[in-house]
Amino acid sequence: MAHLSVSHVSKSFGGVQVLVDQCLDVREGEFVALLGPSGCGKSTLLQIINGLVPADGGKIVLGGKDITGKTGTGRGMVFQGADLFPWRTALENIAFGLEVVGVGKAERLERARHYLNLVGLRGFEDSWPHQLSGGMQQRVGIARAFCIQPTLLMMDEPFGALDVQTRDVLQDELVRIWEAEPKTVLFVTHGIEEALYLADRILVYSKRPARVLREITVPFARPRREDIKLDPQFLELRRDISDLLRHDLYA
Amino acid sequence: MRFGSRIVNLLGILLVLALWQAAGAQLGDALLATPVQVARALVETVQTGAFWAALWQMLWKMMLGYALALVIGIPLGVAMGRVPVVNAIVKPWASMFIVISAAAIVPLFIILMGRGLVFSTAIVFVVTVWYVVVTMTEAARSVSPKLLNVARSFAANDFQRFRYVILPSLHPFIMIAARVGLVHALRAMITAEMFISAGFGGLLNDAGLDLSTAPLFALIVALMIISVSMTSALRWIAHRSAPWYASRTGDR
User: Which range marks the domain in which residue B97 is found?
Assistant: First the structure.
């Protein structure tokens, strides 16, 4: 049975249809990229799964439990701009989710420290978010989501606001962390290369209202390293997806 | 850099004092006492018991109205910033009352309430509360919806969102409202006391009748010192209690 099952989800904002009858099944431990043009509705789908935005219809089941319209319960979210709390230090930001569910201070800070070290921020425990670079802030954002040990990790264009070098480094970091603590991942992006490099499966979405143009099972074995980005098969897939999106955009 | 700007500060003050000294020497102390004469008068003034009694009386009475303005103004401002209905009801009154100076309403309040504690507390409250309200309305409006969403996505309930997101983002603005409010409270209190010739305002009235302007300037300087030390104390508390904000805004 699928770990995450999204069935017949629809959503419109003020008469504009964003999602029509969307279905999606994700296996336990699978890394799925939702790829599509900006504003197509893939982020909205993620927010509906996260429970932040109510769907007009449809049902979301995670690990056998109906979680439609509810937040929390097994899901961790990494936001586009990190969105850290400026009044909390890096460590306190990571511990936030545990504080909400009532974990005691000593224990939650100890667990947060583990994830702070995991994302390579040892020594920055007591830094304020504004003292960290964009890349470091997003590391904290990733650690904050991992710290509640979710079974489903959701990432909404997490590296979209970063420069190319930082993005490449963080992609590798994410893979490393994810291999250390495997979990189901939904990764929203508009970067084709990013999706191919990270995901087991890619859903290519059309422009609004979003529907799946094509489903691609990424053929590369793990662990993957930077050099697969130059593999002929990688480049070919990349061009295929690019053509697919371009045709849809001007169709 | 900070050391350099301190020196420029000091030079600016010295320059003005020098000009003042020169002008005072020309005009004579009946019109404009020199800084040296004022300093001498200040030393004399602070040695009298009447000065301290008047100061004490003014401060504790002011504190009543000021505290009331904070206790009522902060929640009211936050409610206005977060709840459109409250804003629609209170906003017109806030924008009308905020322009009223203490001097304009003192006579009316004397007729209504006499010259006692109720009167001074009411004046300070009415003048101060709207500044607190306006500051807090803006603060409550600027609470980041994104961060509220983050809290929601981590399953924080209403109370937790208030406790972990709204309250911390309001905190620095509460301290700013306290500082802005204090200055207005102090001014309102002095004005009220000048009308009824009591306390510190009464001392100012008396000094105004003196042949020399030195005692009057001495009282004004004392008032400035009090105001600056109180707002500095509040600023220090703000920096200690919200270090993230102080460090982000460059610790000024």
Answer: 33-248
Half-sphere exposure of A131 (CA within 13 A, CB side): 18
Which DSSP category does A224 fall into? P
Q: Which residues in chain B touch residue A71, judged by CB atoms under 8 angstroms apart? A: 152-155
The ipTM estimated for the assembled molecules is 0.89
A10-48 pLDDT, tens digit per residue, is 888 888 888 888 889 999 989 999 998 887 888 899 999
Nearest-Å Rg of the Cα atoms of chain A is 18
Residue type, B51: F
Which among B146, B243, B247 has the least Cβ separation from residue A83? B146
Sequence ranges of the domains in chain A? 1-74+189-251
Place of tokens 């509460």: B174
B193 and B240 inside one domain? yes
pLDDT at B77 exceeding the cut of 70: yes
d(CA A176, CA B89): 56
Q: How far is CA A78 from CA A137, A188, B149, in A?
A: 11, 10, 12
Cβ within 8 Å, pair A101-B155: yes
For residue A186, what are its two tokens?
Answer: 């939904």
Strand partners, A199: none
A-interface mutation test, from B146, B161, B244, B248, most A Cβ less than 10 A away: B244
Question: Quick check: helix, strand or coil at residue A77?
Answer: strand
Query: What percentage of chain A exceeds 70 in pLDDT?
Result: 99
* CB-CB under 8 Å, A100 with B165: no
Q: What fold is seen in the domain A1-74+189-251? A: Rossmann fold (3.40.50)
pLDDT tens for each residue of B31-53 = 888 889 999 999 999 999 889 99
> What is the C-alpha to C-alpha distance for residues A84 and A201, in angstroms, rounded to an integer?
29
